[in-house]
Amino acid sequence: MPEYQLEIKQVVDYPRCRIYRQFIQSLMNDRSIRVSGGSGLFYFAVLSNYANFRTSYRRIDGISYTVYPGEWVCTLKEVSEWFRTRFQCQALGILEELQRQHLISFLTLGRGKVIKYKIRSWKKHNTVLEYNAPCQKDTGFFFLPVSLTTELISTNRCSEMDVVLDLWMSAVYNDPQVEGSEMGPVIYLRNGSGNPLVTYSELGARWGLSKATVSRVLKKLSDAGYLSLMTFPGRHGNVIYLQNYLSTMFQISDVMIDKEEVAMVLNIKLELPAEGNQPEAQEPVTEHEVTVSEGLSCVSKSHIQIILEKMAKLLTAQGISCFGCPKSKYKLSPLSDACGKVYIHHTRDVSISRMGLTILCGDDRLVATFELTLSPCRENSMRRKD
User: Cystine design at 367: which of 149, 226, 354, 359 (Cβ 3.0–4.6 Å)?
Assistant: First the structure.
């Protein structure tokens, strides 16, 4: 079987983050996410979503308006529908508040029925195209500065929509400076630590919400398919991965995130059940032929079985179907000094064992090979590295 390696890297632009217009449209159409009590982030993102990249024209009630880059013209009724306000005067109040913050400028035309607004920092953060053409409102990207996002969510209590947008713009993918980002788009609050672990207290302080409200909102967004929330024991905190981020931003398939793999990358101890108390129901690889070298005596057979089960789960999720075929055979063998080498990784004198996992087809044809690294933390527990 030929081997292929695909590496996709996001160009991380910390001063500003790009947002897909279609994503904003989907948020506007999702009536289950609340916008009340917002900080203004969602409202400003909606206005930016409709802003032009190039000069165009729009006709309203028989009058043609010229709309320049960073501008848009619409009715006050449309703005009220975008903002989900009950009355049009409430939408006008939101526009006035954004204007007081020097984020937009707007005019009321047609006796107050038509709004023409301008994103004041549009040319600084978005490309301006110097030709006239119709402007597509449901495709492409636009940029928002990260500093502006932080300022907006700090002005008032965040709505659920503001939380979604803040998480979306805080996502980092495949950045070597952020732990866990190579596994998927992880939420990183850019605090200089490079660690995506965050607590409900930190998120509550950021969004102006209580810990109980943060927990409720994140669970709601998780159930709705916006994110994957991983909670770790003790004082470690939580890790948040976005769902549908890669398919939206890069038009590629989204990846499955395994909690235990994240724990391994972040050096959070992975607890194994005590020997002799293993659950009998989890035996996905015992149907296959497994050969274990005598050189792996430093790792108990019961733990080797758990290792194989975990490998089966992870690799099957990544599209390697051999674990579902009864013809597959597996061989575990030690690598150089598998049980005697000393490896220092964040702690002192932590001995590790390295082993090779070979997958063979029914006729002993080599399919794939993997290297496993096991780091015992204490009795009946270990840290696993692939």
Answer: 359
